[in-house]
């Protein structure tokens, strides 16, 4: 599978100017491609092909007085910008036809020079390289200093240079992972776990472990409020306002980076210690429209589950998502009786049937572990196996019930 490895870049002043030129040229070519498509649509003509756009917007444009400065940057950067425009239109049309999953996508829009995030991409054709002293040599930019936080496992296929909203530069390498090396890094485990994600605790595991919620945004709110207030008092278009904007962006980046690091460490630990993981498929978008919206966004459940998904695929683990309508908080994990819905302030309850006392989150984690088919009975069969396809004469049923264990 393909992964991205990102490293911090520290370009000097001439390299920053060269990167700014590359960002601007890539943006102009992207906007020209969108404008050519829109003009063809308005005129009722067929969309120009990628080869025609490349010839008109890059090769021929460099020979004109208005676009002669396109020759100051690598041609690969401009070609990749055209590819990005083509991909944006493909995704838009696929979304219209319903062939693309997820929310509906709008048509590509023009990029602005005031966008705070800029990026360019170099493929192998650009002949970029890593020097012997560990610097990233980029065509028509130079050897840029890199902060290597880890070793690249294989030779990258491409590198994307990104300038984020806080003014930081990063090099993002695309890596093809080695399945044999991944298997050696994380051998098979003999454990499985169910995870209940929440706000009181970020995660409660079926073995009783509780992981506190760091609440990175809540802890930084006072500092963010002060920085945002200073920004609102600066005159628009002034240099002081740009400084204040960078201060706000850096404060938000610190929160984002801390949250991402927490998610990476926890997801890696869970994948390393467990062969199978069960997690509830939460409706995060719906929860983000409630009064708990800020806390839901601060927790970052979707990003965490996404990390679990790709790490499970990479290291040969199993990740099972339990339906969001499964009554995990209403069912007794001891006897299986459903005791009805309970308000969020009820953190502990007693089963009316068997008298077992349950911690709300721990009980839900056990039920998620069971509903995912990860728990086994004394004879080794799953307690709640997956759905079985109905036989021809049983159309409309939800599958046959599991067979009892042999005595």
Describe this structure in words.
This protein is α+β, with helices and mostly antiparallel strands. 39% of the residues lie in helices and 17% in strands. It is built from ten helices and 14 strands. The chain has helices at 13-42, 50-59, 75-97, 179-185, 216-232, 239-273, 284-287, 293-299, 301-315, 360-371, and strands at residues 2-10, 118-123, 129-130, 136-138, 142-147, 158-163, 169-176, 192-197, 201-205, 210-212, 276-280, 318-322, 348-350, 357-359. It has a seven-stranded antiparallel beta sheet. Helix 6 (239-273) crosses helix 9 (301-315).
Question: How many helical elements?
Answer: 10
Give the topology string: H per helix, E per strand: EHHHEEEEEEHEEEHHEHHHEEEH
Q: pLDDT average, as an integer?
A: 88
Measured between the Cα atoms of the first and last residue, the distance is: 45 Å
Quaternary organization: single chain
* Number of E-state strands: 14
Bin the strand percentage. 15-25%
List low-pLDDT spans: 376-402
Give, in spatial order, the strands making up the sheet with the most strands: 2-6-7-1-5-4-3
Shape: elongated
- Major β-sheet annotation: 7 strands, antiparallel
Helix content: 25-40%
């Amino acid at each position: 599978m393909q992964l991205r490895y990102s490293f911090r870049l520290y370009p000097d002043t001439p390299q920053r100017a060269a990167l700014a030129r590359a960002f601007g040229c890539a943006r102009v070519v992207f906007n020209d491609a969108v404008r050519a498509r829109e003009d063809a649509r308005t005129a009722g003509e067929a969309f120009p092909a990628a080869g025609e756009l490349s010839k008109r917007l890059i090769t021929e444009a460099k020979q004109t007085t208005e676009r002669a400065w396109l020759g100051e940057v690598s041609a690969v950067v401009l070609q990749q910008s055209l590819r990005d425009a083509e991909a944006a239109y493909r995704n838009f049309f696929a979304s219209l036809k319903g062939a693309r999953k997820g929310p509906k996508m709008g048509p590509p829009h023009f990029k602005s020079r005031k966008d705070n995030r800029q990026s360019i991409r170099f493929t192998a054709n650009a002949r970029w390289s890593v020097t012997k002293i560990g610097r990233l040599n980029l065509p028509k930019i130079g050897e840029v200093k890199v902060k290597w936080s880890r070793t690249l496992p294989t030779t990258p296929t491409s590198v994307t240079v990104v300038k984020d909203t806080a003014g930081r530069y990063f090099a993002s390498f695309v890596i093809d992972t080695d399945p044999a090396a991944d298997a050696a890094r994380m051998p098979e485990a003999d454990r499985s776990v169910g995870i209940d994600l929440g706000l009181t605790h970020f995660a409660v595991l079926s073995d009783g472990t509780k992981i506190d919620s760091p609440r990175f945004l809540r802890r930084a709110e006072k500092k963010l409020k002060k920085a945002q207030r200073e920004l609102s008092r600066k005159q628009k278009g002034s240099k002081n306002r740009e400084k204040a904007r960078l201060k706000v962006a850096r404060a938000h980046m610190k929160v984002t980076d801390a949250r991402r690091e927490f998610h990476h460490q926890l997801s890696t630990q869970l994948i390393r210690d467990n062969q199978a993981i069960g997690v509830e498929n939460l409706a995060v978008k719906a929860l983000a429209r409630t009064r708990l919206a800020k806390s839901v966004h601060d927790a970052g459940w979707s990003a965490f589950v996404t990390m679990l998904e790709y790490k499970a695929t990479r290291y040969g683990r199993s990740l099972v998502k339990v339906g969001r309508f499964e009554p995990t908080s209403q069912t007794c994990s001891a006897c299986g009786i459903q005791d009805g819905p309970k308000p969020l302030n009820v953190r502990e309850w007693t089963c009316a049937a068997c008298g077992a006392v349950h911690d709300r989150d721990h009980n839900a984690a056990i039920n998620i572990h069971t509903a995912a088919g990860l728990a086994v009975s004394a004879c080794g069969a799953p307690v709640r196996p997956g759905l079985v396809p109905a036989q021809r004469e049983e159309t409309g049923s939800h599958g046959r019930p599991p067979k009892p264990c042999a005595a």
